[in-house]
């Protein structure tokens, strides 16, 4: 497919990271999540606003990619398109060689929304069981093993609150339950839309490293929308910086920091350098729209 | 049970009609909030809870009695009402059961139809566009105006009473069900959609539980309202069946004031009982809902 001519950056490829396939191999479509020239506008006529314009991005299997940018840059819209919650106006999304619809049908996507969105009438355990109970046909499609909900919750430090209702938990714990829910059916892709936006800064930092350690142990492909630069860098292999009006991919900052990463990472000089790089990229996006 | 200061426990029992769970008491009870009915009852036994109401009731009763003594043909004395009840308790119970049966059959039919329709309407927009205007017309039409025609069509039996009661509770339950089925956390719906949940799965596992608070609120209105329906229907179709409405009409034609007011007292007790029944069911069904737990102050 030929990319349409446009002022936006040409197809950006994120190079492989230490844990990905060797750099010499060209990953096939089956090993890439490709967002190809995707545009999306809301409203009609005069009120029409281009929220996302010609976004092109290729993510390799097992990569952790953060998307950052000012409000209205279309980062959530892009995520919702990949999650199959919005249709594209133009362009195409391919998830490991299959369309979004097919990926959804096969339960290949774990979605963590902005707020935990737990079902208040279910216990913590039953909330995490939900993905296994819905669309059961897909449970046997791949040879992936659905995880034991109790084990997942224990891994997230929630083994002692299995029978509680969500309203009895703190915000940080609720968010952990929401992430555990996304992990439980073992989807190859996790889409996270500012999952830590609603928790306080201290909880946020500890959640960041919990997520990091769990992700490092099973290497899902993750698209992580955030407003926090340190969060983006600490977690990611690459940070996609977006600019607003219209929403475009401004720049992709590679994060070559070694893995596994720990919480001392944020004190290093390399980390701060990368922070500045992302910060300048965000500013550059603001100055010339 | 946790020790509570006097003011604390008073404040709590004032806020809650239904016993609230003890914070942090759920670990051993497997997540089910422990309901301390005992504490609620103890709370109600405090004079500061019941005294204000008792004083008001006393004042009203005194005023009533004073007026009744001087105007015996307008209202009966209180002791006349209660002696009428005491003389023939079985008679009132028989009539009350007839009215209750009419009210409940009508209520279940009306609420059931309304709920099923609401589910269908939430699935198929066209049906909503067709049904809702008709339902509104049905709601704004004073159903009592149709009652005599229903008697002509269905006779003096129970059928017109069921119909009138059902129509009366239909609309409030329909509207609440519709709103309830739509009041779904949009982000939870997103999670369901990304898992490719079927519409039936979304209905059973998301929409229905989300609608329960609305259904309970509607039931709190509809259950006592069904008594109104049954009594009004009996007014119109009095004559053959017994029932409290029939009894009131008959007693009124004989200017038997104690019987009228005794029937009203029985109806009031039935209404309160139905309301409390709904509250009880609600405290079981909605234990998870914020309406059932008072947030920490």
Characterization of the model:
The complex is a heterodimer of chains A (289) and B (297). Chain A has 289 residues and is α/β, with parallel strands linked by helices. Chain A contains 8 helices and 11 strands. In chain A, the strands form 2 sheets. Chain A has a 6-stranded mixed beta sheet with strand order 7-8-9-4-10-11, sandwiched between helices. In chain A, strands 1-3-2-5-6 form a 5-stranded mixed beta sheet. Chain A starts with 11 loop residues before the first strand and ends with a helix. Mean pLDDT of chain A is 86; it is low at 1-11 and 16-24. By secondary structure, chain B is an all-alpha fold. Chain B has one domain (76-296): MetI-like fold (Orthogonal Bundle), CATH 1.10.3720.10. The longest helix of chain B has 38 residues, at 199-236. Chain B has 12 helices and no strands. Chain B has helices at 6-15, 37-44, 47-70, 78-87, 89-123, 125-140, 143-154, 159-182, 186-194, 199-236, 244-253, 257-285. The chains are: A alpha/beta (289), B mainly alpha (297). Chain A binds chain B through residues 80, 83-85, 104-105, 107, 109-111, 113-115, 117-121, 123, 130-131, 133-135, 138, 163-165, 167-168, 181, 185, 191, and chain B through 26-27, 30-31, 33, 185, 187-188, 190-198, 201, 205-206, 209, 212, 288-290, 293.
Label this structure with key terms.
heterodimer; A: 289 residues; alpha/beta; six-stranded mixed β-sheet; 11 strands; B: 297 residues; mainly alpha; MetI-like fold
Please state the average pLDDT score of chain B: 83
What's the helical proportion of residues of chain B?
Answer: over 70%
Strand order of the largest sheet of chain A: 7-8-9-4-10-11
Main sheet specs of chain A: 6 strands, mixed
Unreliable segments of 5+ consecutive residues of chain A: 1-11, 16-24
Shape category of chain B: flat
Quick rundown:
Chain A has helices at 75-82, 100-105, 124-133, 149-155, 171-184, 201-218, 229-235, 269-287, and strands spanning 12-13, 32-42, 49-60, 64-68, 90-95, 98-99, 109-112, 189-193, 221-226, 238-243, 248-254.
């Amino acid at each position: 497919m030929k990319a349409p001519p446009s002022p936006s950056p040409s197809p950006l490829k994120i190079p492989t990271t230490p844990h990905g396939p060797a750099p010499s191999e060209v990953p096939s479509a089956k090993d890439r999540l490709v967002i190809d020239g995707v545009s999306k506008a809301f409203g009609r006529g005069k009120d029409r606003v281009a929220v996302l314009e010609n976004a092109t991005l290729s993510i390799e299997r097992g990569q952790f990619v953060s998307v950052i940018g000012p409000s209205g840059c279309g980062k959530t819209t892009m995520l919702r398109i990949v999650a199959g919650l919005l249709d594209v106006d133009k362009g195409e999304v391919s998830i490991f060689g299959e369309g979004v619809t097919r990926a959804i049908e096969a339960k290949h996507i774990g979605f963590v929304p902005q707020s935990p969105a737990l079902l208040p009438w279910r216990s913590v355990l039953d909330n995490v069981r939900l993905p296994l109970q819905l669309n059961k046909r897909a449970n046997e499609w791949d040879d992936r093993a659905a995880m034991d909900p109790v084990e997942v919750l224990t891994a997230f430090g929630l083994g002692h609150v299995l029978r509680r209702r969500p309203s009895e938990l703190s915000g940080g714990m609720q968010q952990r339950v929401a992430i555990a829910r996304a992990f439980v059916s073992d989807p190859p892709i996790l889409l996270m839309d500012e999952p830590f936006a609603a928790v306080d800064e201290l909880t946020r930092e500890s959640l960041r490293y919990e997520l990091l350690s769990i992700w490092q142990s099973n290497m899902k492909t993750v698209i992580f929308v955030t407003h926090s630069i340190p969060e983006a860098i600490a977690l990611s292999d690459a940070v996609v910086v977006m600019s607003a009006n219209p929403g475009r991919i401004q720049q992709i900052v590679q994060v070559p920091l070694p893995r596994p990463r720990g919480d001392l990472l944020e004190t290093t000089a390399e980390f701060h350098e990368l922070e500045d790089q992302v910060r300048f990229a965000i500013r550059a996006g603001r100055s010339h729209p | 049970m946790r020790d509570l200061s006097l003011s604390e426990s008073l404040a709590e029992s004032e806020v809650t009609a239904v016993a609230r769970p003890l914070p942090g008491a759920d670990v051993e009870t497997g997540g089910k909030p422990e309901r301390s009915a005992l504490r609620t009852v103890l709370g109600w036994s405090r004079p500061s809870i019941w005294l204000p109401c008792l004083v008001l009731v006393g004042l009203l009763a005194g005023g009533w009695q004073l007026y009744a003594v001087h105007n015996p043909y307008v209202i009966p004395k209180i002791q006349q009402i209660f002696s009428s009840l005491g003389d023939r308790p079985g008679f009132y119970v028989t009539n009350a059961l007839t009215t209750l049966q009419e009210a409940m059959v009508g209520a279940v039919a009306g609420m059931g139809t309304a709920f099923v329709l609401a589910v269908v309407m939430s699935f198929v927009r066209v049906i909503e566009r067709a049904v809702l205007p008709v339902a509104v017309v049905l709601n704004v039409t004073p159903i009592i105006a149709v009652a005599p025609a229903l008697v002509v069509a269905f006779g003096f039996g129970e059928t017109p009473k069921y119909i009138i009661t059902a129509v009366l509770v239909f609309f409030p339950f329909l509207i609440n069900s519709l709103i309830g089925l739509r009041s779904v956390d949009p982000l939870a719906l997103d999670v369901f959609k990304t898992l490719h949940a079927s519409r039936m799965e979304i209905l059973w596992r998301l929409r229905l539980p989300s609608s329960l608070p609305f259904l309970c609120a509607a039931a709190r209105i509809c259950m006592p309202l069904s008594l109104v329906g049954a009594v009004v229907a009996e007014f119109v179709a009095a004559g053959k069946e017994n029932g409290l409405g029939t009894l009131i009409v008959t007693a009124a034609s004989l200017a038997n004031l104690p019987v009228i007011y005794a029937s009203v007292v029985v109806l009031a007790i039935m209404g309160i009982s139905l309301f409390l029944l709904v509250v009880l069911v609600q405290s079981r069904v909605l234990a998870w809902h914020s309406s059932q737990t008072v947030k920490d102050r």
